[in-house]
Amino acid sequence: MKLNTQYLAFGYLAVLSALVWFGYGKYQDKAEEYARLKLVYDRQVAITDNAYHSIRLFNDIS
Questions:
Q1: What confidence score (pLDDT) does residue 1 get?
Q2: Where is the chain membrane-spanning (predicted)?
Q3: How far is CA 47 from CA 12, 14, 20, 22, 41, in A?
């Protein structure tokens, strides 16, 4: 059975499109996770900075 080059090209295009779609989905998941983790990290940094300044202020008063 002879393969038609048009069908072969269409098959390659379909596989390539599926791979790009899958990769983009994974990228979006990682981007959302990164944004969430950055928000948590920024909050933790703010809490730590506030605690450090509070302790310093308390030590200066004492």
A1: 53
A2: 6-24
A3: 53, 50, 40, 38, 10
